[in-house]
């Protein structure tokens, strides 16, 4: 569930969103977009959680890979449906990951 | 709920975590840490969501502000309790936000 990413530097897209009440076809499309993202060159991983606010962070090996994914035609059509139907508002932040560290409890 | 951040560049800390079943004092501490973060110099905003995975993204005006927050004594004590009690695993990614865009539905 926590993405296994390589040593920095790499890139992250932080997608923060508030949904509308219209759930029509949303889950199917979100699932399809996650599957499709995984097939893209330069894809490194994805992490997602939603309460009232939704946060999805996808990881990529370059800014070029992020741009290619943005220009993917099926993804573009899904984004257009997103602004028409599923999202009240969203914010996209493109980031360079410069440092990282982690923790994992040892098994008993 | 979506953080209002200034024009890039600025910095983001992506904190991704899996919790243990021990909820003792967790919510109080999480709330206190959010309040305390807001008081730090260079703090820009925070976004948070949890399902099985929790994602909290905090935004800062410099890497120095992130380091100061990491070294804050109350925050350090809370993090130590985090690894002892509340978290099964977590990952921290420190990022430079280089580009962003947003969308907001027009009111009817």
Please outline the helices and strands:
2 copies of one chain form a homodimer.
Chain A: E1 10-19, H1 26-38, E2 43-50, E3 53-60, H2 63-71, H3 73-86, E4 87-104
Antiparallel strand pairs in A: 1-3, 1-4, 2-3
Helix pairs in contact in A: 1-3
Description:
- 2 copies of one chain form a homodimer.
- Chain A is built from 3 helices and 4 strands, in the order E-H-E-E-H-H-E.
- Chain A has 108 residues and is an alpha+beta fold.
- The first copy, chain A, has a single domain, classed as Alpha-Beta Plaits (2-Layer Sandwich).
- Chain A has a 4-stranded antiparallel beta sheet with strand order 2-3-1-4.
- In chain A, strand 2 and strand 3 form a beta hairpin.
- The longest helix of chain A has 14 residues.
- At the A-B interface, strand 1, strand 2, strand 3 and strand 4 of A face strand 1, strand 2, strand 3 and strand 4 of B.
User: In the CATH hierarchy, what is the class of chain A?
Assistant: Alpha Beta
* Termini separation of chain A: 21 Å
Inertia-based shape of chain A: globular
Number-wise, the strands of chain A total 4
What's the pLDDT, averaged over the residues of chain A? Answer: 96
Radius of gyration of chain A: 15 Å
Strand count, sense and barrel status of the largest sheet of chain A are:
4 strands, antiparallel
Q: How many distinct domains of chain A?
A: 1
List keywords for this structure.
globular, alpha+beta, 4 strands, 108 residues, 4-stranded antiparallel sheet, 41% strand, homodimer, Alpha-Beta Plaits
Concise overview:
The structure is a homodimer of 108-residue chains. Chain A is of the alpha+beta class and 108 residues long. Chain A is built from three helices and four strands, in the order E-H-E-E-H-H-E.
